Amino acid sequence: MKSKAFQIIQYILLLAVGVYLCVLFFNTLDFEGLKTKIASGNFYWFYLVMFVSIMVYTIRTLRWQMLIRSIGYETKFLNAFSALSISYFVSFVVPRLGEVTRCLSVKKQHDIPFMQLLGTVIIERIIDILSLIILLFLTLFLQFDQIMEFVKTNVFHPIYEKVLLKIVAGNITVLIIVCSLLLISVLLFFYFRKYIRERSPKLIVKFVEGLKEGITSVGKLKQKKLFIFYTILIWICYYLMTYFWFFVFEETSVLTWGACLSVLAIGTIGRSVPIQGGGMGAYHFLVTGIVVLYGFSETWGKDLATLIHAGQTFFTFVMGLLGLLIFGLSYWRMERR
Asked: What is the value of pTM for the model shown?
C-alpha cells in the first residue's frame, strides 16, 4: 500500500512539474507565427523523419531479440516489435512503466520468465545511458564553446542569481525552501532504506537472480559485433531524425551538423527526465536554449523544439496503437488454438 501511494504521489508530482513547464513555455509561444511557418514548410522531410523512426523501432527490436536469445528463448519479431511500440506509448503517459509493460507483453505470448525479460530491458537501458554519456562527451569535445555557454546561461546563472544571491541577501523564504528540500530528500532516503529492508528476503533474492541472469545476457551474446553495430546505427538514426527537421524550413536549414549534435545530446537529456509526455516542457526549454546559442532567435528555437517534440509524439501514439493492434490479433489467434 505504501509503495502504491508513493507511486501515485510521484506520478502526480511529475505531472504537475510537466504541466507547469508547459504552461511557462506555451504561454510565450507565438502560435500564429508557428502556423504561418508550418504553412510554408517543406514537410516532405517529416515523412523522412517518420521513416527513420520506424527504422529505429525495427533495429531496437532486432537488438532486443538478440538479448532474449542469449538467455535461451526465442521471440517472434512482430510480437517483440509490438511490445516495444506499446512500451514507448505507455512510457509517454506513465514514465518508466513502459519497461514493465514490454516484458509483460512478451511474457504473455512466449511464456518467458518476467524477471529475465526485465533483466534484458535493464541492460538495454544501461547501454543507452552509456551511449548518451559518450554522446555528451563527444558533443562537449566538438562543440565545447556552445555547450559551456549553454550550461553557464541555463544552469550556473539561474542558480547563482535566483538562489545563492537571495540566500546571501537574507531572503528567508528561499532559505526555508532550500532547507526544506534538503530535509525532505534526507527523510525520503532513510524511509526507503527502511522500506527495502522490510521487504521479503525471498522476493528480493528471486528478483536479483532474475535480473542477474538477464543482465549477464550480454556476455552470452553470439554476435557481439552485430549488437554493437545495431547500437551505433540506432544513434545514427536518432541524429538523422533531428537533422532532417532542420530542412523543413529554409531558415533553419543552415544549422550545422554540430548544432544537430548539440540538440540531440541536450534534447535526449530532456526526454530522459521522468516527466509525462516524453519530458514535455523540459525538452522544449532545453532545445530552445541550444538553438538560440547557434544564432537563432528564441522564437525560432521554440518553434523548432515544438515541432520536433510534436512530430515524435504523433509517431509514438501511432506506433503505440499499431503495437496494440498487433498484440491483440496475436493474442486472439493464440487463444483460438
From this structure: 0.80
CB contact set of 211 (below 8 Å; sequence gap of 6+): 115, 118, 119, 122
For residues 295 and 255, the answer to whether their CB atoms sit within 8 Å is no
Residue type, 73: Y
Q: Which domain holds residue 43?
A: 2-330
Q: How far apart are CA 257 and CA 264, in angstroms?
A: 10
Who's near 237: CB < 8 A, 6+ residues apart?
Answer: 52, 53, 55, 56, 59
Q: What is the rounded distance in angstroms from the CA atom of residue 47 to the CA atom of residue 204?
A: 46
pLDDT value for 212: 60
Domains held by the chain: number: 1
CA distances 102 to 79, 105, 108, 259, 320, Å, are 10, 5, 10, 34, 11
How far is C-alpha 50 from the chain's CA centre? Answer: 17
The verdict on residue 72 lying in a domain is yes
- 335 belongs to a structural domain: no
State mean pLDDT over 34-40.
Answer: 88
For residue 74, give the 3-state DSSP assignment. Answer: coil
Question: At 194, which helix (H) or strand (E)?
Answer: helix 172-198
Q: Answer whether 76's CB lies under 8 Å from 228's CB.
A: no
Would 51 be classed as within a structural domain? Answer: yes
> Are residues 306 and 324 in contact, defined by beta-carbon separation less than 8 angstroms?
no
Backbone angles phi, psi at 297, to 5 degrees: -70, 160
Q: Which three cell numbers stand for residue 148?
A: 559551456
Nearest to 50 by CA among 267, 241, 326: 241
337 inside domain: no
* pLDDT tens, residue by residue, 144-184: 887 777 777 766 555 545 555 555 555 566 566 666 767 77
